[in-house]
Amino acid sequence: MTPTKAFWRGYLDCAPFILIVVPYSMLFGVVARDAGLDVLQTMSMSVLVIAGASQFTALALLQDQAPVFIALLTALAVNLRMAMYSAALVPHVGHARFGTRALMAYLMVDQAFAVAVKTYEDRPEMTPDAKVAYYFGAMMLICPIWYGCTFLGAVMGQAIPDSWSLDFAVPVCFIALTAPLLRSLPHVVAALTSCAMAIAFGWVPWSLGIIFAALIAMAVGAQTELYLKRREARAA
After folding, report:
1. Do 144 and 193 fall within a single domain?
2. Are 35 and 13 contained in the same domain?
3. 3-state SS class at 209
4. Residues 168 and 228 in one domain
5. C-beta of residue 207 within 8 angstroms of C-beta of residue 61
6. Are residues 35 and 145 in the same domain?
């Protein structure tokens, strides 16, 4: 597969996520305006951060009068998944020049990562240049829509009726992203643990329970993987 073909393949493979990204980004624009941000502030946050989950988290905490430090810390914790995404992509695109990798890091979103990693694993014959091109193809569809629909939500938010229920896009988006990645028992155990711990720590103020749930889920998932490896070693 040539880099050009890989680029357009990535572009098309991310097309189904338009159904999620459009209402998701519009919802952020609406929520940001309701939280008191003007259009410029809303777009600045969306363009600079380009991470919907952490943006929603920061807004929710600021609306709850949480200290700015807590809002930033919690948003950072939510976005730590990007560090894991980066580590997973290094074997495939780590050869790229520093400037290219920096741009890829800025553009990284959940949808592009999920599509790219699955494709890289399913098509090991892809060349390094084709993998980079595929990644950018996936991003070139998602990012403009994210920016544009955030702007529409910020400008037209007050005119969108509540009956449209745009907030459905948030859970649907993460279910669509997470479900295909649950390929092993440690993945499933970590996911179930995170759900249980998020509910158990729901009483913690300023949504700090999310951080506790994530740390516990990662530890449980890692221990599950170590247990399976030790059991395989004993069986061998």
Report:
1. no
2. yes
3. helix
4. no
5. yes
6. yes
Query: Rounded to whole angstroms, how far apart are CA atoms 124 and 92?
Result: 9
- Smallest CA-to-CA distance from 25 within 52, 44, 49 is with 52
Helix (H, G, I), strand (E, B) or coil at 95: coil
Closest by CA position to 15, among listed 144, 130, 132: 144
State how far the Cα of 116 lies from the Cα of 104, in Å rounded to an integer: 12
Same domain for 139 and 190? no
- The range of the structural domain enclosing residue 27 comes to 3-181
The confidence band for 193, taking pLDDT boundaries of 50, 70 and 90, is very high
Q: Against a cut of 0.85, is the pTM above it?
A: no
Q: Do residues 212 and 204 touch, judged by C-beta distance below 8 A?
A: yes
- Alpha helices by DSSP H, listed for the chain, are 3-13, 18-34, 39-49, 52-63, 68-79, 81-93, 98-107, 110-122, 128-156, 169-178, 185-200, 209-235
| CB contact burial 127-142 (16+ within 10 A = b; e otherwise) | eeebbbbbbbbbbbbb
Contacts (Cβ under 8 Å, ≥6 apart) of 75 = 49, 54, 55, 57, 58, 61
Among 17-26, 33-42, 121-130, 166-175, name the most confident range. Answer: 121-130
Whether the CB-CB separation of 157 and 39 falls below 8 Å is answered with no
Does the structure show a pLDDT above 90 at 132? yes
| Alpha carbon distances (Å) from 50 to 146, 204, 211 | 8, 27, 20
CA distance 113 to 107: 10
Phi and psi angles of residue 165, each rounded to the nearest 5 degrees, phi first: 50, 60
